Amino acid sequence: MTRQIVLDTETTGLEANNGDRVVEIGCVEVIDRRITDNHFHVYINPERDIPEDAVKIHGLTAEFLSDKPVFAAIAQSFCDFIKGSELIIHNASFDVGFLDAELKRLKMPPVAKITTNVVDSLAMAKQMFPGKRNNLDVLCERFEIDNSQRTLHGALLDAELLAEVYLGMTRGQNSLMIDDTGDDDGNSAGKADAADNIPIIVLGATEEELAAHEAVLQGIEKENKGKACLWRNGQPDSQAG
């Protein structure tokens, strides 16, 4: 079983090492490339003010967050949820930097010590679509994922959308693999055997098609002052080149 956690955070600003704090965490579980109903979502009291520029992005005000738990209160449950999994994060260094700063305040292990790996979906997108914009909205449009509910940034909604985007970006990795998990009768070789036994139908050219082909070859030879066409009988002319 492959367990992945698609994660997103919202924060008070951009500087994890300069006093900015996490205000929301959203996590979506993916097991064997299937999004499950299991998720982790929490709003967090940052114990500080929230700049207006940040509120415009995620809509989370200090008043709304005033009665929410502080990070210390949810830290262990968060770590338990992501433990032993692979994280999928868009612009991973940003979110991991903030989470590590929060965990460090509590003298808890960093994200890298809790999880098996961190995949940066933004870096993946830049490799797949070089020179193009690769933010979440653009990727949703590119992979035809409905993001009409995303009027503001929200950690859980963004994690849900990113899970769909990630599966879209990695779908081709499985397309060339033959399913060897067995057919409905438990025959693990059934699908491979069936593929081997598919008849190959070869259709020969009609007389009209052969005549048209010959006319094309003669036209090419005429244009080249009688030099034999490279494609005649499948053999190149010995003087060609």
List its salient traits:
241 residues, alpha/beta, Nucleotidyltransferase, domain 5, five-stranded mixed β-sheet, 11 helices, 5 strands, 41% helix, elongated, disordered C terminus
Polypeptide structure, described:
- This protein is an alpha/beta fold.
- It has a single domain (about 5-175), classed as Nucleotidyltransferase, domain 5 (2-Layer Sandwich), CATH 3.30.420.
- The chain has eleven helices and five strands; from the N terminus they run βββαααβααβαααααα.
- A five-stranded mixed β-sheet has the order 3-2-1-4-5, with helices on both faces.
- Strand 2 (about 20-30) and strand 3 form a beta hairpin.
- The radius of gyration is 29 Å and the shape is elongated.
Topology:
Elements: E1 3-11, E2 22-31, E3 34-43, H1 52-58, H2 62-65, H3 71-82, E4 86-89, H4 92-105, H5 111-114, E5 117-120, H6 121-128, H7 136-142, H8 155-170, H9 172-175, H10 190-196, H11 207-223
Brief account:
With 241 residues, the protein is α/β, with parallel strands linked by helices. 41% of the residues lie in helices and 15% in strands. It is elongated and about 90 Å long.
Tell me the strand percentage band: 15-25%
Main beta-sheet strand count, sense and barrel state: 5 strands, mixed
Helix content class: 40-55%
H/E element string? EEEHHHEHHEHHHHHH
Query: Class in CATH?
Result: Alpha Beta
Terminal CA distance: 57 Å
Average predicted confidence as pLDDT = 84
Give the CA-based shape: elongated
- Rg (C-alpha, Å): 29 Å
